Amino acid sequence: MSLYVCNTFWYVYHTNRELIYPKMIEKLVPAWYNHTMHTLPVLIVFLHLILVEPESSPLPMKTSMIIQTVFHVGYMFLTFHDRYMKGVWLYKFLGYYAETWTRTLLAPILLTFVIPYIYVWIAYRINDELRPTVTKAKRKTTGKVSAKIKNKKQ
């Protein structure tokens, strides 16, 4: 989810900045805060993926896809519910991207299914690549630490 939010923010920021982070906000909110909110989470996710995830067994990919789908469908439902019941988009940029019916139908499909599935797939591929490397490094480190402890006891 963090990758999804951060990438969406930066994509809209670079294509039509006024929709998501108007220049007037920059006077109130420092640039470092913007990066803390929209860049740092990506780094934290990758650090977690590298340092923690290889140690644990991830959920089956199918389960992760179902969780992502349920979450995103619910989120899109609430977003569209607000739009049609209250007449306002929760996020201004969604109104810009949903100007036509084609866009109104395609945008939720991309935002709800395609993009989250791509992120889940990438995460599982990274995990598959890193798990053997991290496990091997951990065994090596654990062995050295165990040897030092045994030597100190003697």
Automatic annotation (TrEMBL):
Q: Which reaction does it catalyse?
A: 9-(9Z-hexadecenoyloxy)-octadecanoate + H2O = (9Z)-hexadecenoate + 9-hydroxy-octadecanoate + H(+); 12-(9Z-hexadecenoyloxy)-octadecanoate + H2O = 12-hydroxyoctadecanoate + (9Z)-hexadecenoate + H(+); 9-(9Z-octadecenoyloxy)-octadecanoate + H2O = 9-hydroxy-octadecanoate + (9Z)-octadecenoate + H(+); 13-octadecanoyloxy-octadecanoate + H2O = 13-hydroxy-octadecanoate + octadecanoate + H(+)
Q: Which Pfam families match?
A: Far-17a_AIG1
What InterPro entries does the annotation carry?
Answer: ADTRP_AIG1
Q: How does it sit in the membrane?
A: Multi-pass membrane protein
Location within or outside the cell: Endomembrane system
The entry's keywords? Membrane, Transmembrane, Transmembrane helix
User: Which residue ranges does UniProt annotate as crossing the membrane?
Assistant: 32-52, 64-81, 101-122
**Superkingdom, taxonomy of origin:** Eukaryota
Q: Which GO terms describe its cellular component?
A: endomembrane system; membrane
Q: Which family does it belong to?
A: Belongs to the AIG1 family.
What protein name does the entry list?
Answer: Androgen-induced gene 1 protein-like
